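Weekly modeling sync, notes
Attendees: AB, CL, MP (scribe)

Item 1: holo prediction request
CL wants a bound-state model with alpha-ribazole-5'-phosphate before deciding which constructs to order. AB pointed out that an apo prediction alone won't tell us much about the pocket. Agreed to run with the ligand included and paste results into these notes for async review.

Input as submitted:
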Amino acid sequence: MAFPVPPIPTTHDAALLQRLRHRIDRKTKPLGALGRLESLALQVGLVLDTDRPVLAAPQLVVFAGDHGIAARGVSAYPTDVTWQMVENFLAGGAAVSVLARQHGLALTVVDAGVNHMFAPRAGLLDRKVAPGTADMLDGPAMTAAQLDQALQSGADVVRGLPGNAVLLGEMGIGNTSSASLLLALLSGEPLDECIGRGTGLDDAGLARKRALLGKVMDRHRATAASPRELMAAVGGFEIAMIAGAALQAASERRLVVVDGFIAGAAVLWASRLAPALLSSCVWAHSSAEAGHRLMTRHLDVVPLLDLGLRLGEGSGAALAWPLVESSVRLLAEMASFESAGVSDKSADKGAGA
Ligand SMILES: Cc1cc2ncn([C@H]3O[C@H](COP(=O)(O)O)[C@@H](O)[C@H]3O)c2cc1C
Ligand SMILES: O=C(O)c1cccnc1
């Protein structure tokens, strides 16, 4: 069945915004002095639909999938790294495992379509659509039915998790290729500028990747027009699942923390189905992957961090999480000028008048 895009409630509540703004402005600090943390707290309040937001049971979900195109050498690493890293996530040894532990994030790994049979265990969800996408130079990466299955699975995964915030990450050797193509096709930016070194291609490798993805784009440009056709043509199972997960999360008024270039491409794509999705999204960091800055500029969003990360996995989302938490705690726990008996500018003026 075709995946029904869930309705996303509006977060444009002028009265709530005014209450939130007032609460922040009455805190014991110069007006606006908490900078981005103020707009972040406002956004969380609007998404959670309250002027007293509380973040509960944040969920970091890593979607993993393999890519047929990877056999053509678009990555600096072999495709086996996808399943090996899934094992590493579950064993607690990957970057995202460490950061999830540090920040109290529940970590779920989803097999969206890895070319490997995993032994079942806690923390791993089997939602395998197929053992990897088809080679998108030969034809579409996935069928329309596989796309719908992936979108639905992403939505179902979120529905089955507790809490009111999800952090979305991915693993899939070759998936910067899909992300670059999605960015180019959806934004109209030149493909070469949307393509980067991924896991670390050298100059010759980057030139090969550009030439190959140019052919992929030529092959699909005429036939794939709608967002769904584009995702089926050049996407990935983990990318489509992230899109479904983000749409479902926003429809449930959960905050969505978007990791780097690949998770960003999934959300860019999903925002074409439901533009309101973007108001639920926090963009965690500016990835060093070429193309991410084009993406964030195109979407007119400003990521929180700029650490030169180019890892994925949800690592940047996990690193941004404490800032989201701080913004909410400041809103909840800081005293106001009134409650703390601190004189503010307007009170001084009043006293002098
Ligand atoms: C050991 C290792 C761990 C990773 N964790 C995330 N990625 C990242 O690199 C991949 C995308 O880059 P490309 O398109 O060049 O293959 C994705 O799996 C992404 O999550 C990793 C890559 C490697 C090698
Ligand atoms: O920003 C990302 O998500 C990214 C960049 C390079 C490689 N893997 C992931």
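Recorded for review: The CA atoms of residues 132 and 252 lie 30 Å apart.
Action items: CL to compare against the apo run; MP to circulate these notes.
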